[in-house]
Amino acid sequence: MTKIDEIDRRILRELELDGRISNSDLAERVGLSASACLRRVQELERRKVILGYKAILDRSYVGGGFTVLVTVGLSRHLKADQEAFEKAMKAAPEVRECHNVSGAIEYFLRVEVADLEAYKFFHTEVLGTVPQVSSITSYICMASAKDERG
To answer: How confident is the model at residue 2 (pLDDT cuts 50, 70, 90)?
Structure first.
């Protein structure tokens, strides 16, 4: 495990809030010189503590403003079935997150589509055709009071 000190934690907090912050502004906020700050950020990237940077989009502008949280049960608990299901979900652009979880079901998905009709198509023609699936429960997201995905 990679050791992270308090200065690294402050750098990471600032970058989570604003991944486009300039190095000089970041250095000022965490109390380092610009060169020392840049070295630390590069080292965090090299050690894969920072995995990348991305834009956070308003999904309604790109055809994904309708969010459905989906639980999925598999018919069998075999590694090959899990791998096949995960491969199918990776290939489905509507699936924005796919988590293998413990409990009564095997997977928790976050699906983003344009509207209810698009979700019905995904439910029937994509998820409903994966042979490993035994149960699907859909929860339509009406609003999000907190969403810190970056």
So the answer is: low
